[in-house]
Design brief:
Elements: H1 5-32, H2 41-61, H3 63-85, H4 91-103, H5 121-147, H6 153-158, E1 159-163, E2 172-174, E3 176-181, E4 184-189, H7 192-200, H8 208-213, H9 219-228, E5 230-235, H10 240-252, H11 256-265
Antiparallel strand pairs: 1-5, 2-5, 3-4
Helix pairs in contact: 1-2, 1-4, 1-10, 2-3, 3-4, 5-10
Length: 267
Amino acid sequence: MILPPVAAVPLMIAAVAIGVTLMYASILDAKERRVPHKTWRPALTIAIPAAVWIYGLTILTGWQAAAGYLSLVAVFCGFFYLFQAVNLFGGADAYALIIITACIPFFPIEPYFGTPPLGFFPFTVLTNAVLINIAAPVAILAKNLLAGNRAPLPCLFLGFPVDGKAIQNEFGFVMEDIDEEDGRLVRRFVGFTESLGRIVRGERRLYTKDLRLHPENYQRELALYRKAGKVWISYGIPFIIPITAGFLTALFMGDILFVIMKTIAGM
C-alpha cells in the first residue's frame, strides 16, 4: 500500500524520530541495561501528533478499515504490556514496541521487497526482530561446536563458558548454579524452562553487571566462580537491539518472513 504524501510525510517524520531514538536506546541498553523513559520524550513529541493526524485521515477515509487497524494496535499494545508485566519482555523493549505500534501503524515508505498483504508495520517489525534474534543462537552454537565446549544442547545455543576469574568483565547472565559441598564444587545448568519460571515469578537472574557494580554483595559467588575455572553465561544482547534492527529492515527492506515464504513458494 502506497500512502498519499499527506499521510506518508508525517509517518516518515515519525519514523525518523523513532528510529534515531531506537538506535540511541540500543546503545544505552547495551551499556547500562537501562533506558530511562525520558529518552523517548523528543520522539514522542514528534510522533504523537503525526499518529493523531494519520488516525484522523484513516477514519475519514473509511471507518471500517480504521476500526480494524485500531483494533490491531490495541491488541498488540495490550500483549506487549502483558509480556512486560509477567517479565517476558524488559520494560524498555515493551515500551519501544508499544510506541512503534501506536505511532506507526502503516509502512511510511514502500520497502525494497514491497509491503506485505496485511500492511501492518508493527507486525513486520516484531517478526523481523524475532528472526534476527534467532540468528544469534545459531552463531553461538557454531562457536561452541568449533571450540569443543560441552553442555546440554539448549545451553549450546544460548551461552558459552568464560573465565571465572574475569566473569565481571563479561556481559551476560550466569547460566549455572554453583555451590560447594564437603569441599567439592557442585554445579548444574539452569535450564530454559526453569529460567523462564524464575523470570515469571519475578526472581532476578544474576547478571555479570551486578558482579561488576556490586562485588561486595557477591563475594561468595565470585569465590566459587574463581574456583570453578570456567562458568557458563548466556549472551547478553538486549532485545531492543534486534527490535531496532527489525525496525530498520522493516522500513527499508520489508517483511523478512513474508519474503522467505514467497521464496519457498516460488512466487
